[in-house]
Amino acid sequence: MFEGLFQPMHLIMIFGVALLAAISTALLMGLAWGCAASSTGNGDRPAGGGGSPGIGEAGNDAQLLQPEGSVGDADGSLSKEQINKVVRAHIAGVKYCYEKELQHKAGLSGGVDIFWVIQPDGAVSKSSVKSTTLSDAAVEGCILRQVKQWQFPKAPGQTIVGRYPFIFKGGT
Q: Measuring CA to CA, which of 12, 15, 141, 150 is 20 to 30 A from 80?
């Protein structure tokens, strides 16, 4: 009854159909959920989260400008390159914090310098706003919650990021 069914060409066709079905299902579920990643439980989307209409979508002119060599002050076991790599991996979450408020405050722009402490296990134990020209508690609090969730490489000792600038420019 099943003779010839499991020949190489049939297996490739069966695998292809199964793969196509899985991809189609994933795409449909992504559209149904607004392509949003799971929530962090505190109302802030993790890095990479899409979400609310207008936030993180193509055509949004809001910008997060990162100065060259971004780490302003860092002291400890991790290099500036290691710190920048983790920040770049999570920058969508920081941008989301800003874009969420930009929808309600069209002229919102400015900079926020963030301070944080990275423990030897890579966890962020403390984060705070060092200085701000943005002056928006909602954006600043959201960024601090994002930073506290980041995981850095393990290191022999603690690393203090004394100042990391995030500069935001609203859309036109």
A: 141
Give the DSSP H or E segment for 128. strand 124-132
Domain locations along the chain:
63-169
Q: Does the global pTM surpass 0.85? A: no
Q: Which residue has the tokens 């993180």?
A: 56
What is 63-169's CATH number?
3.30.2420.10
Strand ranges (DSSP E) for the chain?
63-65, 73-76, 110-118, 124-132, 159-169
Distance between CA 44 and CA 25 in Å, rounded?
26
8 A C-beta contact, residue 168 and residue 108: yes
Q: CB within 8 A of 23, min separation 6: which ones?
A: none
Confidence of residue 44 (pLDDT cuts 50, 70, 90): low
